[in-house]
Amino acid sequence: MSQSPKPGQVMGRRGFLSGAAAAGGAAAIGGLTGPAAGANPENLPPNVPDWSRYLGEGVDARPYGVPSEYEAHVVRRNVAWLTASTESSVNFTPLHEIDGILTPNGLCFERHHSGIAEIDPADHRLMINGLVDKPLIFTMEDIMRFPRTNKVYFLECAANTGMEWRGAQLNGCQFTHGMVHCVMYTGVPLRLILEEAGLKTNAKWIMPEGGDAAGMNRSVPLEKALDDCLVAFKMNGEALRPEQGYPLRLVVPGWEGNMWVKWLRRIEVGDQPWHTREETSKYTDLMEDGRSRRFTWYMDCKSVITNPSPQAPLLHKGHNILTGLAWSGRGTVERVDVTLDGGKNWRTARIDGLSLDKAVHRFYFEFDWNGEPLLLQSRAVDSTGYVQPTKDELRAVRGTNSIYHNNGIQTWHVQQNGEVENVEIS
Ligand SMILES: Nc1nc2c(c(=O)[nH]1)N[C@H]1C(S)=C(S)[C@@H](COP(=O)(O)O)O[C@H]1N2
Ligand SMILES: [Mo]
């Protein structure tokens, strides 16, 4: 290898992969063994397995379904040292454990400034005030009598991958890229609600505000509010989870997650931006020359290989599946290219499933592995023709003072034993 990878900080060894008995049929690579290696021979053919000998649980056992006990490792995880408290903090979607384009509700990452507000929908109100003909207060029942629509959108926190600006840090795509989720929202176009109140001719901006203790608020230009924003009450068919803003959240497609106000209680209409905390001291980046970027709303095109990755090592030689996610706040993803050798050769991956505007796209690349070290990267191109940059290209323009909006190309180093590390190459 001509490039020398700089390893990331190892956090949390993959304990769930080691220690399994080597009884399975799968050939283990360099001591790494998958779940098949831990099989109980009594359950294997030609024996009749345990679960075929007894009646199972009845239909009254699980009024609200939960995953199999064998999937208990598939959970959101936080990184304790990142924040001083868990109430003003973040956890991460286990991207290496999911497939397709939709994130299951219970696995959507959470980002709160003041913990999860627990709201009784009977007591919840949405107020519209400011530059409107008639200020209005809606109940949840009022909201649900507006015409509604269903849309699949990704939400990405602007701080996703923010820890990687100065080099490889966190060992796992869950931690480097897990501040993204993608669900189907059911909600009312915000335009219909604003029109109900009637906009004054000098109306130019709105300020959505949350009902949590943070009362989190942001300025959103009226053009965007009238274009594709939703006031959503359902995700993937069921009520929003409390973590995601139950009973009501703002959906701001393609724009940074911070603007998607949860527990939405008020929208003020104004003629200029408010310059709230979340768009001045936070969610803004300092450039090399000391000036700050202002109103960086769009989430630019980005991709990541989720498997293999540090939490999902290669377990077999021969046929293997590489997969990952790509998204763009400016449209659809047109193409994803992948390299196994740190960028010497690029091949086009197969985008599979739906290609929806401002939603994540799933890509696959089937390959054969002979045990040689690999440097994996993916590079996405969106429907505007924008090409995902390298991290060095980003730094050349933005410097190294940034936290937010890091959409640079990620590198994973696959070692001969199948273990995978977060590295950077230049
Ligand atoms: N009211 C309120 N809305 C909020 C927040 C918050 O703390 N309070 N966090 C914001 C941030 S920074 C992000 S990235 C997204 C996270 O949405 P999620 O928790 O559904 O993943 O919600 C946004 N909306
Ligand atoms: Mo965020």
UniProtKB/TrEMBL annotation:
<dbReference type="InterPro" id="IPR014756">
    <property type="entry name" value="Ig_E-set"/>
</dbReference>
<dbReference type="GO" id="GO:0006790">
    <property type="term" value="P:sulfur compound metabolic process"/>
</dbReference>
<protein>
    <submittedName>
        <fullName>Sulfite dehydrogenase</fullName>
        <ecNumber>1.8.2.1</ecNumber>
    </submittedName>
</protein>
<dbReference type="InterPro" id="IPR005066">
    <property type="entry name" value="MoCF_OxRdtse_dimer"/>
</dbReference>
<dbReference type="InterPro" id="IPR006311">
    <property type="entry name" value="TAT_signal"/>
</dbReference>
<feature type="domain" description="Oxidoreductase molybdopterin-binding">
    <location>
        <begin position="113"/>
        <end position="274"/>
    </location>
</feature>
<keyword id="KW-0479">Metal-binding</keyword>
<dbReference type="Pfam" id="PF00174">
    <property type="entry name" value="Oxidored_molyb"/>
</dbReference>
<dbReference type="GO" id="GO:0008482">
    <property type="term" value="F:sulfite oxidase activity"/>
</dbReference>
<dbReference type="InterPro" id="IPR008335">
    <property type="entry name" value="Mopterin_OxRdtase_euk"/>
</dbReference>
<dbReference type="InterPro" id="IPR000572">
    <property type="entry name" value="OxRdtase_Mopterin-bd_dom"/>
</dbReference>
<dbReference type="GO" id="GO:0043546">
    <property type="term" value="F:molybdopterin cofactor binding"/>
</dbReference>
<feature type="domain" description="Moybdenum cofactor oxidoreductase dimerisation">
    <location>
        <begin position="295"/>
        <end position="410"/>
    </location>
</feature>
<keyword id="KW-0500">Molybdenum</keyword>
<dbReference type="GO" id="GO:0050310">
    <property type="term" value="F:sulfite dehydrogenase activity"/>
</dbReference>
<dbReference type="GO" id="GO:0030151">
    <property type="term" value="F:molybdenum ion binding"/>
</dbReference>
<dbReference type="InterPro" id="IPR030835">
    <property type="entry name" value="Sulfite_DH_SoxC"/>
</dbReference>
<dbReference type="Pfam" id="PF03404">
    <property type="entry name" value="Mo-co_dimer"/>
</dbReference>
<dbReference type="GO" id="GO:0020037">
    <property type="term" value="F:heme binding"/>
</dbReference>
<keyword id="KW-0560">Oxidoreductase</keyword>
<dbReference type="InterPro" id="IPR036374">
    <property type="entry name" value="OxRdtase_Mopterin-bd_sf"/>
</dbReference>
